[in-house]
Amino acid sequence: MNVRLLPAAALGRAEFERTYGPLPAVTEELLEEVELSGLTGRGGAGFPTARKLRGVRSKRGAVVVANGTEGEPASAKDRALIERNPHLVIDGAIIAARLVHARRIVVAVGRSGEAADAVERAVAERRDAGSVSVATLPDRFVAGEESALVHWLNGGEAKPTATPPRPFERGVGGRPTLVQNVETLANLALIARYGPDWFRAEGTTDEPGTVLATVSGAVRKPGVVEVPLGLPVADVVARCGGARGPVQAYLVGGYFGSWVRPSADLLLSRASLGEAGGSLGARTVVALGERPCGVVETSRVVTYMAEQSAAQCGPCLFGLRALADCLQSVARCADGAAGSYARLAQLERQIARRGACAHPDGVLGLVASATRVFRDELARHLAGACSALDHRPVLPTPGAEGGWR
Amino acid sequence: MSRERLAVDPIRCDAYGHCAELLPELVSLDEWGYPMIHDGNVPAGLRREARRAVAACPRLALRLERRQR
Amino acid sequence: MTSAFSSSATWYLMRASGVVALVLLTAVLVLGIATNRRWRPGRAPRVVTARLHRTISLLAVAFLGVHILTAVIDPYAVVGAAAVVVPFLAGKSAFAVGLGALSLDVVAALVVSSLLRARVPAALWRGIHWLAYLAWPLALAHSFATGTDASSLWLELTGAVCIAAVAGSTIWRVTAERGAKRLEPRPVTA
To answer: How many contacts, defined by CB atoms under 8 Å, are there between A and B?
Structure first.
């Protein structure tokens, strides 16, 4: 497969133009072509892009926000894309802006890392990026959520807001705002050049195209790879040097995702992962080897997610804290572990669908999958023993630094 | 035919608990004092009580929405 | 020229209703704080506190109405209708009456914004409601400044009780644990 989105090394302007050619003219037919291509959002929600473009298009004076904030610690694909192929992302943003009649483009990235510099350098190399500005958001899990992002751009904290109105109706500066993941915009730039049939040449009929996946954990060469949708997960892992040993479970879809058992039938697609009780999300794949403990890892992630709550909604703030406390008790094989475990169902009832955003529900999904996949290990913990041979943490849980502004 | 649905804005809500006191048939409190709306659909007989509860919320977090059937 | 009897009756009614209005305003402020602090009278529902706050505020408005009406019609008070709402317009003791007029303006804003609460932007309602902490001291200052009989023991006692109530409630409001969600989350150790 030819490289589409992710080159091996960073592309400057000249190299970019040699590889991809100039920015194509944006015609009325392009929206049709995007629809035909079947492109869906690559940020995790998977909403059909053509429909989203149409939703913002019918108004005037719109704003395009390229979302590269990537608050998910296990994901590095947006950063990789921005650092190696910033011009493709900017092309996509400019094309989207022309399609929705937007006069302003904001590229939103996280504060840590090189992404902001990469975008600014790329903007400086061009003459058509006059309306592009770069915004660096606090490194918080929920900061990249659509309404949180818009709220921050409007001068508020990077915390989700109550909807309505949704950003596509009234967003940045009160204008209709298109918030699109940077990978989605990069794909838009490719479809504009090569057409929907080319796009559909990879992937499956229902889920066409290639995606960027972040593979980490017990693999030999962790990193970001570009793969067609529908590829077996085992093949995705093979492209990262293969697993370093037997894998007891994969965490797919990030901290909002689910644990799934390895299987030759498991494909990197919404359909296949859905059947396995998981979700595709932002396509993070963390391989858990046999030596660490899945229960302990889940407990650590839930603790992190509780700390990352925007603390605006009682059921999320207090519910996730209580959930984290219970799981820690189970992870430590404490005396009260059985009681804590019994509390989980009661907590789930009081947390589900009671927040303003999907944060608490995402965590519940993760915990539900852990109780399924690590059933035996859980039983061992409740009996007072943990079978971990390696106590080093696997899943990253960066500390929360700085505020929400 | 449109129905009215009871809903709470979880960001505005600050666990005053007045809604659960005024409308125990439809609202109860979780262990942290935040409202859990049992169903949402407001039966005709409770419509007046529901409106009172909405007016009584100190944060105006409770609302009655029109839902198309 | 009205008879001496009736004019002194309006005079006393004006004074009395003024004192009652001040006491009621004090009660409203205390109940407002009590509502915020989730206080409940015994085992009664907490909404009772909020309802009392609202009811007594309307009662206070009623007594304020009597106080203002009698002040305007009483020949000795010399307060024109305009001076009631425009501060510092009255001839005699303009400053003292002006304080009352200012207080009334704020109370009017409080009451109107609360009656129309569902239609007022939330931030505006909050901003106006915080002005209650301005309305009350203005009313108190007005009471003492206009008092020819402020030296009466009963009135001094009443004033002292009102001050104590507001001071105590304000401390209660300020020192109690801040709203649950505004606390920084407790760090949950891994």
So the answer is: 40
| CB of A155 closer than 8 Å to CB of A50 | no
Output the CA torsion sign for A83, A84, A87, A90. Answer: negative
Flag whether pLDDT at C84 surpasses 80.
no
Give the per-residue SS3 of A81-134. Answer: HHHHCHHHHHHHHHHHHHHCCEEEEEEEEECCCCHHHHHHHHHHCCCCCCCEEE
Q: Which CATH number does A294-382 carry?
A: 1.20.1440
Closest to A166 (Cα-Cα) out of A179, A156, A153: A179
pLDDT band, residue C185 (cuts 50/70/90): very low
Cα separation, A376 vs A364, in Å, equals 20
CB contact under 8 A, A325 and C188: yes
Distance from C-alpha of C62 to C-alpha of C57, rounded to nearest angstrom: 9
Interface test with A, best of C182, C186, C188 (most A CBs within 10 A): C188
Minimum-distance CB partner of B16 among C38, C51, C117: C38
Residue C160 has a CB neighbour count (10 Å cut-off) of 10
**How high is the pLDDT of residue B1?**
42
With vertex at residue C13, the alpha carbon angle to CA C10 and CA C16, rounded to the nearest 5 degrees, is 150
- CA C118, distance to chain mean position in Å, is 23
What's the complex ipTM? 0.92
CATH assignment of A210-289, given 3.40.50.300, 3.40.800.20, 3.90.1200.10, 3.10.20.600? 3.10.20.600
What is the set of domains in chain B, with CATH numbers? 2-64 (3.30.70.20)
CB atoms within 10 A of CB A12: 12
Q: In this complex, is the C-beta atom of B15 within 8 Å of any C-beta atom belonging to chain C?
A: yes
Contact A321 C186 (CB under 8 A): yes
User: Is pLDDT of A338 > 50?
Assistant: yes
Residue B58 at interface with chain C, using a CB cutoff of 8 Å: yes
Backbone φ, ψ for residue B37 (5° rounding):
-85, 120
Residue with tokens 């569902």: C118
- The pLDDT assigned to A400 comes to 73
- Cα-based torsion angle of the residue sequence C161, C167, C169, C171 in order, rounded to the nearest 10 degrees: -150
What is the spatial distance between Cα A149 and Cα A179, in angstroms, rounded to a whole number? 9
